[in-house]
Amino acid sequence: MPSTRPPRYHRTVPEALQPATSTSAARSASKTPGRAAGTRRPAGRRAARGAKSLPPPVLAEVRRGDIVESRHRGHVAQVGADGTLEQGIGDPDVEVTLRSAVKPFALVALVESGAADDLRLSPAELAVMAASHNGEDMHVRTLQAVFRRAGVSQALLTCGTAGMPLDPVTAARLARDGEMPGPIRHMCSGFHAASILLSRYSDWSVEDYDRPEHPSQVASRGAVARAFGQRPGALRTAIDDCGLATFAFPLVDIARAFAFLADPAGVAPDPARSAMAPALSRIRDAMMASPEMIGGNGQVLDTRLMRTKPGQLVAKGGAEGLRGVGLLPGGRGDDTGSAGVAVRIEDGDGFARAARAVTVEALRQLGVLSEQELRALGSHHRPEVRSAAGALVAQTVPGFMLAPISELV
Prior knowledge:
Layout: H1 23-31, H2 45-49, E1 58-64, E2 67-80, E3 85-89, E4 95-97, H3 103-106, H4 108-113, H5 115-118, H6 123-129, H7 137-150, H8 168-177, H9 189-201, H10 215-227, E5 236-239, E6 245-250, H11 251-262, H12 264-267, H13 271-275, H14 277-289, H15 291-294, H16 301-308, E7 313-318, E8 322-327, E9 339-345, H17 354-365, H18 371-376, H19 378-381, E10 384-386, E11 392-398, E12 403-404
Antiparallel strand pairs: 1-2, 1-11, 2-3, 2-9, 3-12, 4-6, 5-6, 7-8, 8-9, 10-11
Helix pairs in contact: 6-14, 7-9, 9-10
């Protein structure tokens, strides 16, 4: 049933963040997805676009003994610091939804408002707001501390509790103790908290922070638009499972956005993006300083990648088989520039195996991971299924080769 809550917004939303109202402009934008300002389309894209009539390539197979049990098709795009598509496989222009990969970019609205400084948010507190966390006690305690300082109640959270917490140890303990998980254990509770804190700081109503027309959501939408070099009204939007907005972009533009996240000061090619570089740098640094807040202490790939390559990459996954990785200068070896990588598994990767295997393999091929680091990430590079007795019964094996775009001309 639609909500009947009336809007109660106390402060005017800046005109620059208001969504465009031209339906013709919106239709035009939906037909031609935009790309970040200041980037160029290399000649090799003509050949890459020629593959659109073909099925996406198989990137990983699930093997059970000598039987290929299933195959995962998908796409990988890697761009350089200037946004040029350098290597990839599949269709770099395939449109995908960001899902939770949007969080670091939308969080810019909170930092730019001054609320992060006013609340003296620590790196861990900022990181958990860009996270899809496992709902462990450390995530809950971190968010509760922020709510207390802000003088707001966690009961305001509208993210729900379905399927949470993701951490199996925490879930088992709560079940044993007869405790029902609250919304604060939801993987998106930190992201929702950011909207609540922005609303409180800006003197906007907090009870309806999740409504698409609420100023906090308009501000977040404006931040995402600037990060991707678009107008807010031109964005293709949808609603994520947690109830807040997500957005659709070509895969290559997601790679460009993560190159921007990796090096905001070095990549920003236009005034709008340059202006957000300090806030985005702060968010990036918080994520890299507290990778356990982005996922958890277990086997979440985003956390493991940032721990394996401290200070050299930033990673954030999204549902339906998406992951973005930003490589800082030097992340691919000495004297290499920043870069962005985006991975998309076509079938949505319901068991969360192919996106992990393909991401790690792509980083290996790009020279990001040493053999030792690859071994440390072995459970993600080749995810295993074991029997109750501990015997290996199935394994996901990546099998593709990234091609330099110049070779596709």
